[in-house]
Design a protein that fits this description.
Elements (H helix, E strand, L loop, with lengths): L4 H9 L27 H19 L7 H12 L5 H8 L3 H13 L3 E5 L7 E5 L1 H26 L1 H17 L1
Antiparallel strand pairs: 1-2
Helix pairs in contact: 2-6, 3-6, 6-7
Amino acid sequence: MTVSKAAALDATKAPRPARKEPADNGVADTAIELGELSELLGYSLKRAQLKIFEDFLRCVAPLQLTPAQFSVLLLLDRNPGRNQTEIANTLGILRPNFVAMLDGLESRDLCARMRSTNDRRSHILVLTDKGRAVLMRAKKLVAAKHEARMNELLGPANRAALLAMLTKIAKEF
């Protein structure tokens, strides 16, 4: 069916009917049935990841670090002088997103980009003194609060088993 421009414009100007509120039939008080969704590993992993990230953000709120930024600082501390591509690839962060994240970390004086002496087209990344201090504080907060809660929830054996399973999925899937 073809609609003229005039008719299409008239339709956009027409008043919209008032929205009807859903009828109160008691359904809103019951939990939504997930069905097969609750059996899908991907769904459960994503839900768990969201909860873990929420807790992480609460724990390091005074430092204003995201899990990805914390990961970058950890890698820079353990691997000084690596280039942007190596760090981004290790963490699975797309280049444009990684550059934006580095801009933010650099503006806070947590890390610095320096031209590589081996390849002038690439930049090596270094942790600044301030970045090292923030990382040390973040590691203490994460260990004392976030990881402690996870250990309490799972117990040492389950934590180790879950970590092994997640590592296997990440490497082999």
